Amino acid sequence: MKPLHSLERKLLSSLARDDGGLLEDVALKADMTIDQARRAVEWLRSKGMVEVGTTTRYKIEIGDEGRRAADHGLPERRLVEVLKKLGGEAELHELSKASNLTPKEFSAAFGHARVKNWIGTVSIDDKAFVKILTPDQISPEESLLKKFVSKKDLFLDELSEEEKKAVSILIKRPDYFMKRPLKTIDITLTELGMKTAETVKEVKEIDNLTPELIISGRWREHKLRPFDVEAVAPTIYPGKKHPLQRFIDEVREAFISLGFEEIAGPVIQPAFWNFDALFVPQDHPARDMQDTFYISKIKDVKIGSQDMIERVSRVHIDGGITGSRGWGYDWRLDEAKRLVLRTHTTAVTVKYLADNKVSEAKVFSVDKVFRNEKLDTKHLAELHQIEGIVVGRKVTLRDLMGVLNEFYEILGLKKVKFWPTYFPYTEPSLQSIVYVEGFGWMELCGMGIFRPEVTLPLGVKNPVLAWGGGLERLLMTKLHIEDIRKLYENNIDWLRKVPLCL
Amino acid sequence: MPVITLRYDTLKALIKGDVSTKELVDKIPYLGITLEEVVDEYMKVEYNPNRPDFSTSYGVARSLNGLLGFDKGAPSYSIDKGGVELVVDESTQEVRPFVVSLVGKGLILSDELIEEIISMQEDLHDGIGRHRRKMSIGIHNLDVLTPPITYTTVSSDFKFVPLGQKEEMKIEEILRETDVGKEYGHILYGFDRYPLLMDSFGNVLSFPPIINGELTKLRPSTRNLFIEITATDLGTADDALAVLAATLNDSGAQLESVKVSRGNSIRITPDMSFQKMKIDVKLANDLLGLKLTDQEVSESLEKSRISVISEDGRLIALIPRYRVDILHQVDLVEEIAYGYGFEKLTPTLCTSKKAGKPDETHYLIGLAREVMTGLGYIEVKNYNLVSRRALYEFTNRKPRAIVKVENPKSIECELLRDVLFPSLLMVLSRNLHEEYPQRIFEISKVFNRDARASTGVKEVYHIATAISHSTANYTEAKSSLGSLLLQAFNLKIDTIPTRHPSFIQGRVAMIKLAKYNLGIIGEIAPSVLENFKLRNPVSVSEVDLSKIVHIVKQKV
Question: What is the pTM for the complete model shown?
Answer without folding.
Answer: 0.79
